[in-house]
């Protein structure tokens, strides 16, 4: 006849199993946070813009340069061309968000270093998250922005269909007001944007991008 196991044996076995489970859980790698504003060097995005009048045009945004800062961080330059380079924007990224640092309109259109830096995205992008910015634009006009994150929506564009986070931005600039609505898809970036200013609406949507998956 076998002898019953002591009580401490069951307790020790339970503790051992718990430790093994905890060790396994800790070993599982964390999924990286989705990147809603990718800025890899040489990547590009092509957009189609439609004005209220129905007139359309296309432009391309390309990551053309990056600079390492004294603190080890990177600043990346996103250039807008149509087809000649028109605007250069310098961004910095961190786990807490994406900041627009500088903006220059090429060909003598003016340049501004934003102080404080202009937050484009506050991370993580969760519904209900809000942020504000008050600063000066390149024309020395005061600008006030308020941003709010809304749940993901399905967005159809010429570049494909995306599940994209919606951000609504209310802008007051030099006494004029406008509302900008942007949709950002994880791993892709900006896929659609509309701007309403005094009842006049324009839109921009993604047509193609350099790292689009091959079918």
Task: List its traits.
215 residues; mainly beta; YmcC-like fold; twelve-stranded antiparallel β-sheet; 12 strands; globular
Q: Whole-number radius of gyration?
A: 24 Å
Q: Mind summarizing the main beta sheet?
A: 12 strands, antiparallel
What is the percent of helical residues?
Answer: under 10%
Number of helices: 1
Residue stretches low in confidence (pLDDT < 50, at least 5 long) are 7-25
Structural class: mainly beta
In what order do the strands lie side by side in the largest sheet? 6-5-4-3-2-1-12-11-10-9-8-7
Q: Give the class-level CATH name.
A: Mainly Beta
CATH topology name, in short, is YmcC-like fold
What is the general shape? globular
H/E element sequence: HEEEEEEEEEEEE
CATH architecture: Beta Barrel
Counting DSSP E segments of at least 2 residues, the number of strands comes to 12
Total domain modules: 1
Query: What fraction of the residues are assigned to beta strands by DSSP?
Result: over 45%
Mean pLDDT: 88
Distance between the termini: 69 Å
């Amino acid at each position: 006849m076998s002898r019953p196991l002591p009580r401490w044996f069951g307790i020790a076995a339970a503790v051992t199993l718990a430790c093994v489970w905890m060790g396994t859980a800790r070993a599982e790698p964390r999924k990286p946070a989705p990147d809603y504003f990718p800025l890899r060097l040489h990547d590009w995005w092509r957009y189609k813009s439609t004005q209220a009048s129905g007139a359309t045009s296309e432009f391309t945004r390309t990551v053309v340069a990056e600079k390492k800062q004294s603190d080890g961080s990177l600043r990346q330059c996103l250039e807008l061309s149509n087809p000649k380079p028109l605007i250069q924007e310098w961004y910095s990224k961190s786990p807490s968000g994406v900041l627009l640092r500088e903006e220059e309109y090429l060909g003598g259109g003016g340049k501004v270093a934003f102080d404080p830096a202009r937050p484009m995205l506050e991370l993580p992008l969760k519904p209900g998250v809000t942020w504000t910015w008050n600063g000066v634009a390149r024309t020395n006009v005061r600008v006030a922005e308020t941003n709010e994150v809304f749940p993901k929506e399905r967005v159809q564009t010429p570049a494909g269909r995306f599940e994209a986070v919606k951000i609504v931005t209310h802008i007051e600039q030099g006494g004029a007001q406008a509302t900008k609505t942007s949709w950002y898809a994880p791993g892709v970036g900006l896929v659609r944007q509309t701007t309403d200013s005094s009842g006049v609406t324009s839109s921009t949507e993604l047509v193609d991008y350099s790292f689009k998956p091959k079918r």
